[in-house]
Write a structure and sequence with these properties.
The complex is a heterodimer of chains A (346) and B (439). Chain A is mainly alpha-helical and 346 residues long. Chain A is built from 15 helices and four strands. The termini of chain B are close together. Classes of the chains: A mainly alpha (346), B mainly alpha (439).
C-alpha cells in the first residue's frame, strides 16, 4: 500500500500534490466563508485564458533545452511595442488586435533569434543570464518608453514626456477576445473567444512539436550529444525554440492586455517570467521536460489558487495583501524546488 | 591544469615587473572597468554638479556600501559564484534592528546589540542557504537569487501578518495602527536611535587622514625596502617598492597641502570640509584584512581548492559540502553586519524595501570593479564601489542636462546595474564554453 502511495507521489510530484491539496482546501474554505462561487469560477476561467499563452511560451524553450525562459520579458516587450505602434497608427477593434500581433512579430523574431544566438554561447548558465537580460531589457525599454516619439493622446502623459504607466485599451480592443461568442451558464461567464484563442495556440504548438523540426528540437533538448550524433543541428534547434518562445511571449502579453484592459509599461514586465515559470512547474514540468498538458494544468492550478486565495485571505485577515505574499512564496518556492531537482548530481 | 597555472603565474610576474607589458590583453581583461571609468568621467562632466557635492556623496556611499560588497568575496573564492543571497543576511540584520528598536536600546550599545543579535540569525540562515546550494551545484547563483525572493516572501509574511497577530507586540512606534504588521518605515533617529551610531563616534577631516595614511604607507615601504630584503620575507621587485614609497609621499603631500595651504581655489577649499567616519572606515579595513588573512589559513586554502575543483578537493580529504556551507555562512553574517552599517548611515529602515536591491547593487559594483564569477579581490570590490556609486550620484542630473528628464537617469542606472550583471555573467559563461570546446 505504502509502496503504491510512494509511487503515486513521485509520479505526480510532491509540490503539485501540495498545491492541488491547498487549492481544494481554499475552495472548501471559500464555500464556508460564503463567497459567491459563480463569479469566482468566472474569474478563474478568465485568468486561465489570460495567462495561458505566457505560460505556453515556456514549452518550446524547455523542449529545445534552454530551460525555463526567464527572459520572457524580451518577448513581452516586443508585444508591448507592437501594441503601442498599432495604437499609434490608429487601428481599433479587431483590426487593432491583429495588427498589434502582426507588428510585434518581426520584433519578436529578430529579438528571439539574436537572443538564441547569444544563448548558444553560454550553454549551462542560461537561467541566470536570461534573468538579467530580461531585467536589463525592461530597464532599457523604460528609457525608450520616455524617448520614443509616440503622439497618440490616450498613450502619452497630457503634461510631460513619455508614455503613461498604464495605457487603457477601452477605446480600442479591450476584452475583444473575451466578448467574442461569450455566454453564461448559471451565472458563470465563459469567455469563448479567449479560451479558443488559448487552446488554438496550444494546438499550434502541439502540432509544431509533432512536425519534423519540432521532433528534432525535442531531441536536441533531451540529449544534445545524441542529437549531434544523429545529424541534428543542435544550435539551430535551440535558436528556433528561443525564437518561438519569444514570439509566444509577445502574443501572450497582447492577449493578456486585451483581457486586462490595459497595457502595463515600464517596470511591470520585470517579474512576469517568474509567474509563468512557476505555473508550468506546478503543472508538472521540470527544467528539462515540458508538455502542453503541463501548461493547461499548471495555469489552471496556479491561477485558480491565486484567484480563490485572494477573497479567502481577505476574509481571514482583513489587513494587507496576504494573497500577494502567498503568491510570492508559492511562486518562488516552486522554482526553488525545481532547481534542486535539476542540479545536485555532479 | 598545473601547467596552465604556472603559465599564468609567470605571466603575472612579468606584468608586475614591467607594467607596460602587453597593453592589449590588459584592455581585454579590464574592458568593463575601463568602460565605466569613461562613463563616470562623462557623467561627472555632463551633470555639472559641484565637485564638493560629488566627493561628499561618494565618501558617504563608500563607507556605507563597501562592507556589503566585500561580503561577496569569500563565496567567489569557494567557487560558488556571486552570492545573491546576501539579501537574506540583510534580512537578519533588519529583524534584529526591529527587535532592538522595540526594546528601545539606542546609540552604540543598540548598534552592538543589533550586531550581536543578527549573528545567530545570519549563521542559521547561511547554513540553510549553504545546504540548499549544495543540492544545486552548478546553478548556485540563480538558486541564491530565487532563494532570496522566496525568503523575502517569508519575511513579508512574518512582519506583515504574524507580528501582532501571533507574536504579540504592543509598540505604537513599530506596529501599524490596526495592531497587525510592522510599519513601512521605521525612523532610526528617534530618541537618539542607532542612526549614525558608528559614524559619529569619531569624525576626522579627510586630509588629516590622508596625511596619516601617507605616513603609514611610507613607513611600510621603508620597512619593506630594508627589512624585507634582508630577511627575505617576500621578494618584490624594486619598481614596486619605489612606487609604494612614491604613492605614500603623494598621499601625504596631498593631505598636507589641503590642510595647511592658504591660497587654494574656492571649490577645492570646500573639500577640506569633508570628514571621514573613522570607526566605520576601520571596520571596513578590518574586513579587508579578514578577507586577506583568511586566504592564508587552512580554511582559506580549502575554499580555494574547492573553488578550483570540487573533485580534487574531495579526493584530497576536504569535506566539500561543509566547506561550501562555511563559505556561504561567513558571507551571510558579513552581509548582515554590512546591512547594519548601511542602515545606521541611512537612518531610516524601510521595512519591506531596504534589503531588496542590495544584492543587485553590490554585485553590479564588484563586477564593474573587474571581478568575475570565479575571481574577486578586495581591490576590485573597492574600485567597483567607487565607480558604481559615482554613476549613481551623477546619472539623474546628467540625464536631466542631456534629455531634460531626471527619470531617464534613474532608469539608466537600473539598466546599467542589471545590464552589467547580465553581460559579465554572459561573458564569463562564454569563456567557459570556449574553454570546454577547445578541450
Amino acid at each position: 500500500m505504502t509502496e503504491s502511495i510512494k509511487e503515486f507521489t513521485s509520479k505526480f510530484g510532491l509540490p503539485r500534490l501540495i498545491i492541488t491539496g491547498f487549492f481544494i482546501l481554499i475552495c472548501i474554505i471559500s464555500v464556508f466563508v460564503g463567497l459567491p462561487f459563480d463569479s469566482m469560477l468566472s474569474d478563474i476561467i478568465r485568468r486561465f485564458g489570460m495567462y495561458g499563452i505566457l505560460v505556453l511560451a515556456m514549452v518550446p524553450a524547455i523542449q529545445s533545452g534552454i530551460g525555463p525562459n526567464f527572459a520572457l520579458p524580451l518577448g513581452i516587450l516586443c508585444g508591448l511595442l507592437g501594441g503601442m505602434i498599432s495604437m499609434e497608427l490608429g487601428f481599433v477593434d479587431a483590426m487593432g488586435f491583429w495588427s498589434a500581433i502582426i507588428i510585434s512579430l518581426p520584433f519578436a523574431i529578430i529579438t528571439g533569434w539574436l537572443y538564441g544566438l547569444m544563448l548558444n554561447k553560454i550553454k549551462g548558465s542560461e537561467m541566470l543570464v536570461a534573468t538579467y537580460m530580461g531585467f536589463s531589457a525592461v530597464a532599457f525599454m523604460c528609457i525608450m518608453w520616455i524617448l520614443l516619439p509616440f503622439k497618440h493622446p490616450e498613450m502619452v502623459w497630457p503634461i510631460g514626456r513619455g508614455l503613461r504607466v498604464t495605457v487603457s485599451l477601452d477605446s480600442t480592443y479591450a476584452q475583444i477576445l473575451n466578448k467574442f461568442w461569450a455566454f453564461e451558464i448559471g451565472g458563470v461567464n465563459i469567455p469563448t473567444g479567449l479560451l479558443l484563442f488559448f487552446l488554438g495556440s496550444c494546438l499550434v504548438v502541439w502540432l509544431f512539436t509533432r512536425s519534423k523540426i519540432g521532433i528534432a528540437m525535442k531531441a536536441a533538448g533531451d540529449n544534445p550529444k545524441f542529437a549531434v550524433a544523429s545529424g541534428i543541428n543542435v544550435d539551430r534547434c535551440r535558436i528556433i525554440g528561443t525564437t518561438l518562445s519569444t514570439i509566444l511571449g509577445a502574443l501572450g502579453i497582447i492577449v493578456y492586455a486585451q483581457s486586462f484592459g490595459f497595457f502595463q509599461l515600464y517596470m511591470a514586465p520585470q517579474f512576469m517570467a517568474f509567474g509563468a515559470v512557476a505555473a508550468i512547474l506546478i503543472g508538472g514540468a521540470s527544467a528539462k521536460r515540458a508538455k502542453i498538458s503541463h501548461v493547461i494544468l499548471g495555469v489552471f492550478l496556479f491561477q485558480g489558487m491565486l484567484t480563490v486565495a485572494l477573497p479567502v485571505a481577505n476574509e481571514l485577515i482583513k489587513e494587507g495583501s496576504l494573497s500577494e505574499v502567498l503568491r510570492f512564496i508559492v511562486q518562488n518556492g516552486i522554482i526553488l524546488y525545481a532547481l534542486t531537482q535539476v542540479g545536485g548530481g555532479e | 591544469m598545473a601547467e596552465t597555472n604556472n603559465e599564468q603565474i609567470t605571466k603575472e610576474d612579468i606584468k608586475e615587473l614591467n607594467p607596460s607589458f602587453n597593453v592589449k590583453s590588459f584592455f581585454q581583461d579590464n574592458i568593463v572597468t575601463i568602460l565605466f571609468v569613461f562613463i563616470c568621467i562623462l557623467g561627472v562632466q555632463l551633470s555639472k554638479l559641484p565637485l564638493f557635492f560629488i566627493a561628499n556623496e561618494l565618501l558617504v556611499r563608500i563607507t556605507r556600501n563597501s562592507f556589503l560588497v566585500l561580503a561577496l568575496i569569500i563565496p567567489v573564492l569557494a567557487g560558488m559564484g556571486l552570492n545573491f543571497s546576501i539579501v537574506i543576511g540583510a534580512m537578519a540584520a533588519q529583524i534584529s534592528i526591529i527587535i532592538v528598536t522595540h526594546w528601545g536600546v539606542t546609540g552604540v550599545p543598540g548598534f552592538l546589540l543589533c550586531a550581536f543579535l543578527s549573528f545567530p540569525l545570519a549563521v542559521l540562515f547561511g547554513n540553510l542557504i549553504g545546504r540548499l546550494l549544495n543540492k544545486t551545484k552548478g546553478q548556485e547563483m540563480i538558486t541564491s537569487m530565487i532563494a532570496s525572493f522566496f525568503a523575502n516572501g517569508l519575511y513579508q509574511l512574518l512582519f506583515l501578518f504574524l507580528v501582532g497577530k501571533i507574536i504579540p507586540v504592543n509598540n505604537p512606534i513599530l506596529i501599524l495602527s490596526k495592531g497587525v504588521g510592522v510599519r513601512n518605515t521605521i525612523d532610526l533617529s528617534r530618541n537618539g536611535g542607532i542612526k549614525y551610531a558608528l559614524d559619529n563616534i569619531l569624525k576626522v577631516p579627510i586630509f588629516n587622514v590622508f596625511m596619516g595614511v601617507g605616513i603609514i604607507i611610507i613607513i611600510y615601504g621603508v620597512c619593506k625596502l630594508y627589512l624585507g630584503n634582508r630577511y627575505g620575507f617576500k621578494r618584490i621587485s624594486r619598481v614596486k617598492q619605489i612606487s609604494i614609497l612614491i604613492l605614500g609621499l603623494i598621499v601625504f603631500i596631498t593631505g598636507y597641502i589641503f590642510t595647511f595651504s592658504e591660497d587654494l581655489p574656492n571649490n577645492l577649499r570646500m573639500l577640506t570640509n569633508l570628514k571621514l567616519p573613522v570607526v566605520t572606515s576601520l571596520t571596513v579595513i578590518v574586513l579587508c584584512l579578514f578577507n586577506f588573512i583568511i586566504v592564508k589559513t587552512k580554511l582559506g586554502q580549502d575554499f580555494r581548492t574547492v573553488g578550483q575543483d570540487k573533485h580534487i578537493a574531495s579526493v584530497s580529504g576536504i569535506n566539500v559540502d561543509r566547506t561550501r556551507i562555511i563559505a556561504v555562512t561567513i558571507s551571510t553574517v558579513l552581509a548582515a553586519w554590512g546591512q547594519l552599517i548601511f542602515l545606521q548611515n541611512i537612518g531610516t529602515l524601510n521595512t519591506y524595501g531596504s534589503h531588496v536591491q542590495i544584492a543587485t547593487f553590490a554585485i553590479a559594483a564588484i563586477l564593474i570593479g573587474g571581478a568575475s564569477v570565479s575571481k574577486a579581490t578586495i581591490g576590485q570590490a573597492l574600485l567597483g564601489v567607487v565607480l558604481f556609486h559615482t554613476l549613481f550620484i551623477v546619472s539623474p542630473k546628467a540625464a536631466k542636462e542631456l534629455f531634460g528628464d531626471a527619470q531617464i537617469g534613474e532608469f539608466f542606472r537600473n539598466f546599467v546595474a542589471y545590464g552589467v550583471i547580465g553581460v559579465s555573467l554572459g561573458l564569463h559563461a562564454w569563456k567557459k564554453t570556449l574553454k570546454r570546446t577547445k578541450k
